[in-house]
Structure formats: C-alpha cells, structure tokens
Write a structure and sequence with these properties.
54% helix, 0% strand
C-alpha cells in the first residue's frame, strides 16, 4: 500500500504521478481487476505518449526557471 500511495501521488514539478509519467496510466486499486481497459491503436498510443512527454518536459523546464 505504501508503494501504491507513493506512485499515486502528484509530483510538484511534473504535475503528474510517477506511474502516469512512465506508463501513461493512472494506477487503480481494484481487487476485481480492470474490466474496461482502453485499447488504442498503436499510432494513437504513440501520439498520446508523445503529448504526455512534451507536457512533462515543459513542466520541468518551467520548474528550472
């Protein structure tokens, strides 16, 4: 639970959780599992990850100023 809590906390610099920044998914604690996972076409997934990475880089550059 401690590891889940840490990875689910918003980072002040990136404004994202560590799991979202690394895997583009918000962690969920569900004993029954994920029943309705989003299935994206690979090109859409890559574009989505690129957008997230761009936003993270922007947040880090802003924090360095």
């Amino acid at each position: 639970m401690a590891k889940f809590s840490y990875k689910n906390m918003m980072h002040s610099t990136t404004q994202q959780t560590p799991i979202f920044a690394n895997h583009s998914l918000h962690p969920r604690f569900n004993i029954q599992g994920v029943n309705n996972a989003v299935n994206l076409v690979i090109e859409d997934r890559i574009a989505w990850l690129t957008d997230i990475q761009t936003q993270l880089v922007s947040n880090l550059e802003e924090a360095q100023r």
